[in-house]
Amino acid sequence: MTMRMTLVGQRGYTFIELLIVTTILLILASAVMPLAQVTSQRQREAELRRSLREMRTAIDAFKNAVDLGLIPTTELEPGNEGYPPTLDILVEGISAANDVSGRQLRFLRRIPVDPTTGDSDWGLRSYQDSPDSTTWGRQNVYDVYTRTGGTGLDGTDYSDW
Question: Alpha-carbon distance 112 to 85, whole Å?
């Protein structure tokens, strides 16, 4: 009689119960992983769009400064069309016209890092290049694009953004 009472008094889970709980957890985890991957990709794509917008805005601001006469065209190469000669000039700055203080006009704090490659090596297009060109003509910087060959969640190629 004593042996029977000790078996009834013990509590715990059976192997079958543990197996069922483990199976349920595996099913839930397999549903969460793709969602986490899509969320991570969505964040990288948002950062890519922000970086492209930031650089394109800086290029446009440089062009507007040239058009307004704030940057002397004598400091630019002939055939430049008023666009920056490199991305670096947007960070380093360029001397303003009629400014004797030596102040530099800067348009970017730094060249953003491409979140898809982890590098700040962007594809460049000059004003004279064709819109779908993959090589830079080196006359000026008219546009920037990522060198990543992937496709976004919306189905478009990253290089078309």
Answer: 18
